[in-house]
Design brief:
The chain is α+β, with helices and mostly antiparallel strands. It is built from four helices and seven strands; from the N terminus they run E-H-H-E-E-E-H-E-H-E-E.
């Protein structure tokens, strides 16, 4: 089965929101995605299997830093390396934009995601207590791109 990575546009908001609802208990709304995609500071990439959006990742580019905002992979497509492909795509974009770092938050107990991020060169830089629904801590992880070149 082949996968294609594409830039996501406002026309794809319904697909984004539908995938978000499948992946998260507190999903972003269509309005949130639409607003995000209208910003010139935002980059979104999605992975498609045939015409179906099966994974996506978003990033804000502010000054010389990138903030990965959303990472979602449809449950039926997990453990196939799709998140890694998206991270690699965003790293390439970040380097083109001459960003110095990429930062993200990840649930403290999401061991699979933490392991992936560490494999990709992200390191733990902090913790946000009660970040998720006021209950679960978020680990703050950063990839310093200057160390990648």
């Amino acid at each position: 089965m082949g996968y294609i990575i594409k830039e996501l546009t406002k026309e794809m908001v319904p697909s984004l929101a539908a995938l978000e609802k499948i992946c998260f208990t507190h999903p972003w709304t269509e309005a949130m995605f639409r607003g995000d995609l209208e910003s010139p500071l935002t980059v979104y990439r999605g992975i498609f299997s045939e015409d179906k959006l099966v994974a996506y990742m978003g990033m804000w580019c502010v000054a010389d830093e990138g903030q990965i905002t959303n990472v979602a992979v449809h449950p039926d497509y997990r453990r196939k390396g799709l998140a890694k492909q998206l991270i690699e795509a965003l790293i390439a974009i970040a380097k083109e934009k001459q960003l110095i770092s990429l930062t993200l938050e990840v649930r403290k107990h999401n061991e699979a995601a933490i392991s992936l991020y560490e494999t990709m060169g992200f390191c733990l830089v902090g913790c946000r207590k009660g970040y998720y629904e006021g209950k679960e801590d978020a680990l703050l992880m950063t990839l310093f791109l200057s160390e990648q070149q």
